[in-house]
Design brief:
Helix content is 41%, strand content 16%. By secondary structure, it is an alpha/beta fold. The protein binds pyridoxal-5'-phosphate (PLP).
Length: 456
């Protein structure tokens, strides 16, 4: 008899709607985003500058469910439902009584959860008459997802990629070009923002904040383009809830239910995607789960940031969001989990932390790689550096079960595979991967960039 390992659903079981946690939150609506010029809540008309109407509704609406359009589900069917896998070999390696499961998003064509939102954003922009997409990318996962999504809908894509990553990860660019996208290292000569920075710093390594400003400028000069977002926004978190909805059905097949749900948190989208449907069950009177959000110790947004209105972009072109922030001028050390190097986080994650629904944890990157290697040796799958943060904490919880002699069911999100991140693993094996400490002075300087506003 085989031990049950994979919990698979049929294509027909791909969720038909996205789940909106805002419908079930106690204690009033989410704080609105603010117009930086007026300090007033952003209006629908102002949002319409960058977003098609369906996305605006999904961003601020309070319906519990938003229907997934058929053309989007049809594309999801290329890789969804993603598998829920019982990590039995890891359990044995840890000699733990805990049952460990992971939801594996690395089966998506670009290797992470990001196309779950890239596809609907491309679709709605196409319906709105846009013929191309423009965006920024850090490590390249979002750029790849945008390139794929644009290609599926016959649109062009231009991706401003942080120069240091562009140089370190040439294969990400090649993947984007395979899908027909144009990938430009940022800062570039193509925009006024980029030219101004290059004039002053010809060797600028770039940053996500700069790349965002370039993408927004390019968007602003060409009305045929749509601007798309890879994380943090409410509608992005919403699109990712296909992950947790599938997991709930898969746990029914496994005749089990998680006590603990773990996810890595950059902008918060894969964590929200996995955890929000479970939290919804809890808020509606179902079983309680303990949800852990894992961030890098070098970019401790949730554990050392403050909750305040701040800009999501360094260039201060976009709105202000009420969120945990280290200050929009915070430049995180170059840890390899590029997707987790964000000074702020999705406002919905902040709200769930404030409501006591999610507990934040920070871990240093070498301990994450250690767990990533242990996981790869036990289960075979090489995790993305971001995902190793979730692996680390899942392993720690399983070890605690062993020490306490208790059995718990642990679910973690394996948000992507690490096949494009092998240079980071090479550095880890060579012993040259460092745990950059957060410098208190740098944190204080960045915190000073948070706008002074009336208490929130
Ligand atoms: C982008 C990315 C992340 C971080 O983004 P979230 O919005 O916090 O999920 C995590 N893991 C992988 C594999 C990513 O590509």
């Amino acid at each position: 008899m085989l031990e049950r390992t994979k919990f698979l659903l049929d294509e027909q079981d791909i969720p038909t709607s996205w789940y909106n946690l805002a419908a079930d939150l106690k204690g009033g609506p989410l704080a609105p985003a603010l117009n930086p010029a007026t300090g007033e809540p952003l209006t629908r008309d102002e949002m319409a500058y960058t977003m098609p109407e369906q996305l605006i509704e999904q961003e601020i609406g309070t319906e519990r469910e938003y229907e997934i359009p058929d053309p989007v589900r049809q594309i999801y069917a290329l890789w969804r439902p993603s598998p829920l896998i019982r990590a039995r070999r890891l359990e044995r390696a840890l000699d733990t009584p805990a049952r460990i499961y992971y939801k594996y998003e690395g089966v998506a064509p670009t290797g992470s959860h990001k196309p779950n939102t890239g596809i609907p954003q491309a679709y709605y922009n196409k319906l709105a008459g846009k013929t191309g997409l423009v965006t920024e990318t850090g490590a390249g996962q979002w750029g790849s997802a945008t390139a794929l999504s644009a290609n599926f809908f016959g649109m062009t894509a231009k991706v401003y990629m942080v120069r240091v990553s562009f140089e370190q990860k040439p294969y990400r660019r090649a993947l984007m070009e395979t899908y027909g996208a144009v990938c430009v290292p940022s800062p570039s000569e193509e925009t006024a923002v980029g030219r101004a920075i290059l004039a002053e710093h010809p060797d600028s390594p770039g940053s996500l904040g700069i790349a965002t400003s370039e993408a927004l400028e390019a968007f602003g000069t060409d009305p045929s383009l749509g601007y798309v977002l890879g994380s943090a926004a409410n509608h992005v978190l919403l699109h990712q809830t296909v992950i947790g909805q599938e997991a709930i059905r898969q746990f029914a097949l496994a005749d089990d239910y998680p006590d603990i749900v773990v996810g890595c948190a950059g902008g918060g989208s894969n964590l929200a995607g996995l955890a929000f449907p479970f939290l919804g069950e809890q808020l509606r009177g179902g079983r309680a789960v303990r949800v852990l959000a894992v961030e890098p110790a070098a970019c401790p947004t949730l554990t050392q940031g403050v909750v305040a209105y701040d800009y999501a972009d360094t260039g201060r072109l976009g709105p202000l969001f009420r969120m945990h922030t280290l200050g929009h001028e915070f430049v995180p050390p170059p840890v390899h989990a590029g997707g987790l190097r964000a000074h702020g986080i999705g406002p919905m994650i902040t709200r769930t932390v404030e409501d006591g629904l999610i507990e934040p944890v920070a871990v240093p990157q070498t301990r994450c790689f250690e767990a990533g290697v242990q996981f790869a040796r036990a289960e075979g799958v090489l995790p993305a550096p971001e995902s190793t943060h979730a692996v680390r904490v899942a392993v720690d919880e399983a070890i605690r079960c062993r020490e306490e002699g208790t059995s718990r069911t642990i679910l973690f999100g394996l948000s992507g595979h690490g096949h494009f991140d092998l240079v980071a693993y090479q550095k880890y094996f060579a012993g040259i991967l460092e745990d950059d400490a957060v410098d208190a002075a740098a944190l204080a300087r960045a915190a000073a960039s948070i706008p002074r506003m009336a208490a929130v």
